[in-house]
């Protein structure tokens, strides 16, 4: 897989990544359809042409099966194109609270991992605060993250929460969960392709409406992955989000914060962050809306 294809698999959009992968393969649409037919999958040249041009997107179950086979034919990591589709557009009245985003839209490769883990429906917890503290060691290549969640129950008998993590580049693995504090570790699942992970944290006691709890957990980020940004995805409003970054070794020359309304799209509210002499910087974002808030840097 060449560098250009790897890059657009990270950034999208879907049609650009699919087009680049087909071009890099050297296969005509007719030969692609033939390769799929050899696997017992029928898809028309017109459908693939529409997908790569952005005129339409695969949505039906049989189309998603074909897309997964297409990834294999093109030599792409499993779910790398599927992840760029995000969540399916709703066709009817949904049950998600207004002003929120689906976890399956924000963490597309985690969708199947969430099946059976959502014993507590998404929306029975308010996130009063989320804090991420990261150490990026240039000498050892170590990247560690400690996350603190301040939660409030919006219903009675809420006994758990679920967190999702996913890497941008399908080539690199998901973060490793090192431990959790102030809760018990429940089920942990990872995708076969290795880019995503979901974990269930069980509260020491069920919370009733209006009761609060605090959870902390530690991650080791994928080693060897070129890292020039970090960001947090929010499916619902958060009272306060903070990020603390410490660079060990040569610090970057410039650090900026940015927001996005969803998982992808134009960056908004781009601002420079002050980087101290000790290689540390912080971002404090009150009243965060659903979408993403991140920090990127240049060396």
From TrEMBL:
Record-linked InterPro entries: Cro/C1-type_HTH (IPR001387)
CDD domains (alphabetical): HTH_XRE
Source organism, top-level taxon: Bacteria
Stated name of the protein: XRE family transcriptional regulator
């Amino acid at each position: 897989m060449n560098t250009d294809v790897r890059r657009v698999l990270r950034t999208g959009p879907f049609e650009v990544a699919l087009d680049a992968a087909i071009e890099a393969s050297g296969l005509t649409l007719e030969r692609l359809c033939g390769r799929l037919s050899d696997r017992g999958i029928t898809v028309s040249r017109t459908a693939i042409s529409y997908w790569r041009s952005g005129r339409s997107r695969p949505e039906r179950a049989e189309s998603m099966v074909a897309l997964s086979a297409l990834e294999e034919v093109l030599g792409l990591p499993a779910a790398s194109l599927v992840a760029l589709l995000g969540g399916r557009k709703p066709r009817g009245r949904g049950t998600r609270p207004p002003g929120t985003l689906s976890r399956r839209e924000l963490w597309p490769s985690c969708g199947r991992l969430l099946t059976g883990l959502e014993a507590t429906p998404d929306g029975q917890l308010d996130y009063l605060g989320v804090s991420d503290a990261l150490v990026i060691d240039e000498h050892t290549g170590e990247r560690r993250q400690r996350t603190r969640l301040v939660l409030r129950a919006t219903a009675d008998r809420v006994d758990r929460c679920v967190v999702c993590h996913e890497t941008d580049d399908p080539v690199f693995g998901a973060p490793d969960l090192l431990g959790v504090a102030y809760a018990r570790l429940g089920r942990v699942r990872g995708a076969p392709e290795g880019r995503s992970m979901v974990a269930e944290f069980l509260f020491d006691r069920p919370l009733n409406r209006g009761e609060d709890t605090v959870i902390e957990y530690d991650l080791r980020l994928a080693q060897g992955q070129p890292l020039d940004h970090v960001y947090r995805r929010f499916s619902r409003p958060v009272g306060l989000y903070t990020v603390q970054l410490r660079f060990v070794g040569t610090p970057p020359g410039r650090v900026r914060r940015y927001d996005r309304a969803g998982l992808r799209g134009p960056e908004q509210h781009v601002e420079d962050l002050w980087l101290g002499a000790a290689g540390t910087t912080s971002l404090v974002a009150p009243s965060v809306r659903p979408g993403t808030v991140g920090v990127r840097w240049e060396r």
